[in-house]
Each structure stands twice: as C-alpha cells, then as structure tokens.
Structure of ABC transporter related protein:
Amino acid sequence: MSQGPILELRGINKSFGPVQVLHDVAFYAYPGEVTALVGDNGAGKSTLVKCIGGIYPIDSGEYYFEGRKVNVTNPRAAAELGIEIVYQDLALCDNLDIVQNMFLGRERKRGVVLDEAAMEELAAETLASLSVRTVKSLRQPVSSLSGGQRQTVAIAKAVLWNSKVVILDEPTAALGVAQTAQVLELVRRLADQGLAVILISHNMNDVFAVSDRIAALYLGRMAAQVKTSEVTHSQVVELITSGRSGELGLKNGNGAA
Ligand SMILES: Nc1ncnc2c1ncn2[C@@H]1O[C@H](COP(=O)(O)OP(=O)(O)OP(=O)(O)O)[C@@H](O)[C@H]1O
C-alpha cells in the first residue's frame, strides 16, 4: 500500500504517578486496514488506546495524524480528528432505542426541536452502508438486542461521525460463534470502506481472521508491529508472552512496510 499511516505515534511514554505504563511506544495505523493490538493482561493496550483517544494525555512522545503533528489532550480533540473508540462495556443506554443511542449527546435539532426524521434516516443509512440487516426496527430499545446486535449498534454509532479511525476494544469478547463471525465481518467492512480500524483482542483466531497488521505490546513496550501475513500464531503468542520472537529477529517497533 502506497498510502502512509493515518495515525502514527513515536516514543510515547505514559506514567501513572510513579508507575510507568508505556515505554517509548511506537504505533501506527493505516487507512483501509485492521491493525490488531495484542498483549497480555496489563501490557498497556487500554492505556495506549486511551492516549490515542485523548482520555489520557501522553507524558512525552510524538503524535501524528494524517502526517501532521497534533496535540491530542482531550477526547474532543480526538473526536475532531475523526477518532472514535468503542469500549467493551459499549456505553449504550438500555432504555433508549437504536436511533437515540446512536445520536446520544450529539442530537440533530431543527431549531429547538429534535429532528427525529433526519436522525432516523441517517441511522438507517449508516447501518445499510455497513450491510447491517439484523436489526428489525430502529425504534426498538437497545435492551431488546442481542450482544452481537448491540456491538453492531455501538460500531455504527462510532462511524456515524465521519470517523477515520475506529478503535474497538474486544468487540467479540462476550459473543457466541455466529455473532462473532458477524461482528468480524463488520470489522472487515469498516476497513474495506477506507477506515483505519484498531482492534484490541485476546483472541488469536479473531486476530488472524480479520487483521492486516499486528502490534504486540509486552510490559508497556511495543515488542513488534508486523504484517499478519508474515507471522504465525505461535510467533505472535511468543511476542505476547516474552516480548520477543527469535525466528522473526525483530527489533522494537520494527515491521513498518
Ligand atoms: N489509571 C491508572 N492508574 C494507575 N495504574 C494504571 C491505571 N490504568 C492502568 N494502570 C496500570 O497500567 C498497566 C497497564 O494497564 P492496561 O489496562 O493499559 O493494560 P491492558 O493491556 O489493557 O490489560 P487488559 O488486557 O487486562 O485490559 C497495568 O499494570 C495497570 O495496573
């Protein structure tokens, strides 16, 4: 791919009080690709993603977006760049319907009145563009949806805002086999539409099924970022568990195309 990364981090450090969680981390994500972010519990995946999303300001390091150096010091700055995070707990409101959830906090208005028709149309268009046909009515409460459907709504909500980078935190963790397959298809479709997708996952099958690149964190350091087609399951497991892969002969943060 000739295009450069849409998002690139260099030398990122992040501490909480005396505890340094991220050490000199390099990371990049390309448009049209799924980048899997893997690592053991506590490796720093959530912290890295929260730095990308402006929830945690970085202590030092450089953050580039579309080739420009940027300061992302709060979630609004990230949203303005087109970066959206879909959290594991989804932050959907059970008592609200699909349209209300998708526009929560960013409602469309006509004068002082909510423009329900415009919101419903845009929600329908977005779901259709993602080839989501599993929800019966956009006016059904989110509490009536299955886990996979909820995940779909949360993802659709994230792409509604002309997003360019969508970060998904373990989107299949709570799902069964069929629903996992549906959500992975959706993840792939997002990338095929040109979005850069960052997928946090512990599931190697998911990672290999859907990702183009894999970034492996080990104890807060980027052990490697590699093309998925160039590594095996066991090499990735070795990167996650030991931070190294002898066979790959990779250096820290290496593997850029
Ligand atoms: N707000 C915080 N204050 C202090 N320490 C924190 C904070 N957030 C995370 N940490 C520490 O940073 C380290 C990395 O945590 P993080 O949640 O980023 O890892 P993770 O790779 O996402 O793990 P998991 O897969 O278990 O979610 C952990 O040791 C954690 O205890």
Notes: Residues 91-163 form one domain. DSSP finds eight helices and twelve strands in the chain. The longest strand covers residues 19-29. The radius of gyration is 18 Å.
